[in-house]
Amino acid sequence: MTLRRALxxxxxxxGATAPGAPAASVIDTRRIDDRLLELTLRTTALTAPTKVRVxxxxxxxxxxGRRYPVLYLLHGAGDDFTSWTRSxxxxxxxxxxxxxxxxxxxxxxxWYTDWRNGGRGGPPRWESYHMGELIPLVDRRFRTVAxxxxxxxxxxxxxxxxxxSYAARHPDRFTAAASFSGGVDLNLQLGGQPAAxxxxxxxxxxxxxxxxxxFGDFVTENIRWRGHNPVDLARxxxxxxxxxxxxxxxxxxxxxxxxxxxxxxxTHEMSAVVHERLARLRIAHLWDDHGPGxxxxxxxxxxxxxxxxxxMRRFAGPVAPxxxxxxxxxxxxxxxxxxWVALRREGVAFSTLSDADRRGFALRGTGRATVTTPARYRPxxxxxxxxxxxxxxxxxxxxxxxxxxVRLGDRLATVRAGIVPATG
Length: 424
Hints:
By secondary structure, this protein is α+β, with helices and mostly antiparallel strands. The protein has helices spanning 3-15, 83-86, 90-93, 126-141, 158-169, 195-204, 222-226, 262-280, 297-316; strands at 25-31, 36-42, 50-55, 70-74, 100-104, 151-156, 176-180, 189-190, 193-194, 241-246, 286-289, 325-329, 333-336, 339-344, 351-357, 360-372, 382-387, 390-395, 403-421. The chain is globular.
């Protein structure tokens, strides 16, 4: 069943990178034209070799000392890594710009995540491959600005979800993120039906996935869906340059369409939910609700044309990472902006590191945790750390990082820690 038919059926019914894994390696390179390369990669995160297209700037070979920012551009469901150069006018849109564009494959219904597969895990492990292997490979192989300030991500439909989900789960990797008609709310209900669940199950079947294979069972493991959902992770997006583009699925748009487009209607509702959530959180973003329009390439090509100049301005005047870090995750261990949290708890749950800076942090969650700070302290220096009502002197390691033990307990709790130099 196609995604369009699956969503239509649902609405009609309602009316009636593992740690230590080897890095990806390039096994073939093909030059398509002066700017466009196609690489074939081997990775243990996937069962077969995968491909990625790379658009280089004009004159790249002649400017040996110059480094360039990178835009990671993600495709939609039922498509592949060739789509943006085949149908999205990416090559002409970026002509003459000092920009590298990386267009990886994400499966016909891979949903830019490591599949749950009934608890067995991946492959496919798309997130581990893209975040843990592809980005480092691109930074090694090409002359990139290999830092957050020189990296952005965007995508359409399933790729719009991927762009915002990756940015929310890895905000220290990207300075900007954009979604074009993105499936960006995994829990959205349309007509009493879970629109995203229908879409995920229908599209992942193209890659051999059974219902629930991607994120787990929608009901009993909904926490895993929420742990990848841009709406639930919206706070993590603070400080990024953000854009949401979508039509409303109604006929009459500038690029044709004489009937209601059910997919664009659904992605518009999802995008609107994210927009409203960001607005409530007072997180700056662009909301381009461009009215009538369908879930088709002319609109996404226009979205890209409008997005690239904003990204180039962002790259030209990079924004510093947040001075105080806040981050929410369902993972048992996670790192962001140099902070590292390792939890020991029962089951899957959200935890939040907040107000984290040199003077301390707050951690909300259950169980026990060890919080490791960035290297912001004098190596081997002694610091008094007050956690809740308890105080202890902790020595920084040789790199200037502190390890702080936090007891949260069996019930959801917030514990604050303060850090000051020890005296005496």
